[in-house]
Amino acid sequence: MIKLLWVDLEMTGLDVEKEVIIEAAAVVTNNKLETLDQYHAVVKQPQIHIDRMDAWNQKHHKESGLVDLIPTGKDPEVVENELMALIEKNFDPKDRIILAGNSIGQDRLFINKYFSKVAARLHYRMLDVTSFKVVFNNFYQISYAKPQTQHRASADIQESINELKRYLSFVKI
């Protein structure tokens, strides 16, 4: 059975050289996009990273309540080890895991830098829902009315899965 590892990270910004991960969520799905397992954690980071977030990140992460949870979050090493436990539970050790998500290339940069054990298990191929969005929106004028989320990792993953299901509903093979 084909499985996908959906990941969404919330970060203090987009620059992988300056910013850090503040929330991580993962969902394992089968080829019918049914959830088999899931994980979520807020990542503890030094206050300096929170203080230097840009205005967009300050606004969204405060409104969602995420900023208030960071001081009591889990250490990044613990989060990586727990993600590895999820992977080891759901994937064969020889599997190169396909990473899935929306604009997943950005998350992959942070995974490569901060979660190297997770990165080592990933296939170079990724399933990026954004590619489907570009094709369906621009070629066929089919869109997905994405509900407003609070930019929290678990909700964002579920919306990405729902969005892919919408686009795939138009594919007849």
Structural class: alpha/beta
- Which strand order does the major sheet show? 3-2-1-4-5
CATH class: Alpha Beta
Give the N-to-C terminal Cα separation.
Answer: 19 Å
Alpha-carbon Rg, integer: 16 Å
Determine the CATH superfamily: Ribonuclease H-like superfamily/Ribonuclease H
Task: Supply database-style keywords.
5 strands, alpha/beta, 173 residues, Nucleotidyltransferase, domain 5
Per-chain topology:
Layout: E1 3-11, E2 21-30, E3 35-42, H1 47-51, H2 55-63, H3 66-69, H4 76-90, E4 97-101, H5 104-114, H6 116-121, E5 122-128, H7 129-140, H8 153-168
Helix pairs in contact: 7-8
Task: Write structural notes for this entry.
The protein has 173 residues and is an alpha/beta fold. It has a single domain (3-168), classed as Nucleotidyltransferase, domain 5. Helix content is 45%, strand content 23%. It contains 8 helices and 5 strands, in the order E-E-E-H-H-H-H-E-H-H-E-H-H. The chain has helices at residues 47-51, 55-63, 66-69, 76-90, 104-114, 116-121, 129-140, 153-168, and strands at residues 3-11, 21-30, 35-42, 97-101, 122-128. It has a 5-stranded mixed β-sheet, sandwiched between helices. Strand 2 (21-30) and strand 3 (35-42) form a beta hairpin. Helix 7 packs across helix 8. The longest helix has 16 residues, at 153-168. It starts with a strand and ends in a 5-residue tail after the last helix. The model has no long low-confidence stretch (mean pLDDT 96).
